[in-house]
Amino acid sequence: MRERPLVLIIDDDVDYVRINRRLLERHGYDVVTAAVGFEGVEQARDHHPDAIILDFMMESNTAGAAVAQQLSEDEKLKDIPIILITAARTVKPWWGDKLSPNEDWLPVSKVMDKPVNPEQLLAELDELLHGGPPTAS
Fold it and tell me: CA-to-CA distance for 83 and 111, rounded, in angstroms?
């Protein structure tokens, strides 16, 4: 049993990962990271995180959807909550409602637009893991 919840961040933006790793660690989370989709799936298998923060556009325009699909098809990983983070709805407005949680195409718990407000990210993550507001440490 872990003392602190473990979050996996899968994102190819090094600065975004660094900033959010610090944020999460300051608020009582342990963090592992991956820069590409296949590495993220491996990290999920190796560490079985409590939650995943997943970028949508990485090595391809829909890499995040492919990762979410792989995770949802793995019996040991399918129940891990995933927060999909994306700028696609802003940069490519035609994505619109297509980037919403969808059991068949986008099996994630929540979709949030980049840039994400840190307090909102903490609140969403804490809601998924604990059903309540985040606690500062």
Answer: 6
Bridge-partner residues for 83, per DSSP?
A: 53, 110
Our measurement of the distance from residue 124's CA atom to the centroid of its chain's CA atoms, rounded to an integer in Å, reads 11
∠ Cα 116 127 78 (to 5°): 90
Report pLDDT digits (tens) over 44-71.
999 999 999 999 988 887 789 899 999 9
Structural domains in the chain, sorted by start: 6-129 (3.40.50.2300)
- Under a CB-based contact definition with an 8 Å cutoff, are residues 77 and 108 in contact? no
108: closest CA among 57, 68, 61? 68
94 confidence band (pLDDT: 50, 70, 90): very low
Supply 85's token pair: 């983070």
